[in-house]
Amino acid sequence: METEPCCEEQRDGVLDPTEPEVAEPISEPADCDPLNKLPCGPPEQGEELCGKDPSELENHAVETKDKEIKSLSNCEQERRQAECKVEKKLKKTNSWKMVRFQDPSTEEDVVERDSSAEILFPEYAVEEWTCAQFEELFAAEDWENITEDQLLRKKILESGDEQVPRSTWGQEVTVKMQGVLEDRTVVEKDCKLVFVIGEGDVIQALEECVMSMQKGEITLLLADSQYAYGLLGREPDIPAWAPLLYQLQLLDIRDKPDPETLPIADRIRVGNQKRERGNFHFQREEYSLAARAYYVALEVLTTHSQDGNDVGMKEEEEEVREYRVKCLNNLATAQLRLEQFDEALHTSRDVLTLQPNNVKALFRTGKLLSDKGEYKEAMEVLKQALKLEPTTKAIHAELSKLVKRQSGGKDTQQWRVKPAKVLGDDITPFLIPSKKKSSGLSWKFILGALVVALGSLVTSVIMTARN
Question: Can you tell me where the transmembrane regions are (predicted)?
Answer without folding.
Answer: 441-465
